[in-house]
Amino acid sequence: MSHVHRPDGRLRLAATLLVSVAAALTQALSSLYAMLLIALLAMVIVVTADKTLLNNIGRRVLRVNAFLVIVWITTSVNWRYMAIDEAGTLLATQMSMRVNIVTLAASLLLARMSGVELGRAAVGLGLPNALGALLAQVARQVSLLSETKTRLERAMRARAYRSALGFRSLQVSAQMVAWLIIHALARSERISLGLRSRGMSSTRWPTRESTAWRALPKADWSTLGAVIVIIGFCLLLPTLEIQK
Amino acid sequence: MTALLRMQEVAVTRSTRPVLHSATLALHRGERLAVRGGIGAGKSTLLLAALGLLEHQSGSIELLGQRCRGEDDFAPLRGKVGLLFQDPDDQLIGPTVLEDVEFGPLNLGWDAHRAHHAADDALDEVGLLHLSERPVHELSGGEKRLVALAGLLAMKPTVLLLDEPTVSLDSDTTERILEILLASKLSMLVATHDPLCIDRLATRSVLLEHGAITD
Prior knowledge:
The complex is a heterodimer. By secondary structure, chain A is mainly alpha-helical. Chain A has helices at 9-25, 29-49, 53-75, 86-109, 115-124, 129-158, 167-197, 218-243; strands at residues 77-78, 83-84. Chain A has a two-stranded antiparallel sheet. In chain A, helix 1 (9-25) packs across helix 5 (115-124), helix 1 (9-25) runs parallel beside helix 8 and helix 3 (53-75) packs antiparallel against helix 4. Chain A is globular and about 65 Å long. Chain B is globular. Chain B starts with a strand and ends with a strand.
């Protein structure tokens, strides 16, 4: 377990939102290149400090890029004339960079934040309490599905199951999906009863009072400050190039 | 004497937390070895690692006389070594009791008739033949545990690994499970903190503490 100090959740979420909005709005390739480069550098630094994050971030980036391959195939080639589509290529490049920037920023800035912490941070930034509770619930249910799937797969392997190409594997996979839904529903029902018995309701979320903004350490603010400066620099980069 | 299971200084880390750091034990034929230990001592981790369902970072595991390093070594042995999970809900996969008990035998490549026959025999052994067509999710906790056990027995294993087999069961079901296990005459490694289970079932016991086994 890493003991690196992590800034306040609200500031981390705010920084992530700023990066995402900046990446989504800017059209200039040089700005996007700069942001991606800085995000990659930040990833190297963070992963060096906390090696346990490498697997997690690496897998997420790989999955996102596997999806981007489809984007490239469908937008950058004019299949009718079998030619490269310049407008499509530009769009695919922008999309690839934006998605990678947002993925890296969220993975690094929100690393090790649970669904509840994320919901609490969102409420701290002004999101209505009920929506914060919903966000926390969604995150919990998604992780529940993933936990259940891991447990079921482990139990199937323990009973000598090995997936292969064939009807039986297909049948077992379908059975597993059905079972996964039943399990997750039953478990989420139990969790919901447990939460309700402890005073949770969908509209009233017993949030822990956040630390006052003024009481936050300077180091936390400097993280947000650094992100704003970097975004500003990246967005101004095309202007600086024109002046040269 | 060749051990059915031999673990030598096995270390296992679960999501960055080291759970076992030097677990050493041997289970011999005919033996029923209990692994005692408090909550969070790593008993479940020990069983999962013994069957290769959790990767061990160091040390060695020998199962049924074979040195097992990775999935390819463990997978063919899983029919011969049955693992009973602590929570039967994690183990049961079939829509009905009979289909669930047949799941393991079919994985071993048995034909449908033989698998069906083995499942019937196993359900008869645990006294639940009358529930064969019942949907699994409608069973009580004790019945689920018995169905999970039948699912293992149907595969005709040589060794059983049992994770808290009597936890959260009433005294009648506990007694029934202990009788079934004793009657099976199988070698078994039992992770438990139930004194009754240790007294009635175990021929020997060891203590798992701070990630290591002590006698």
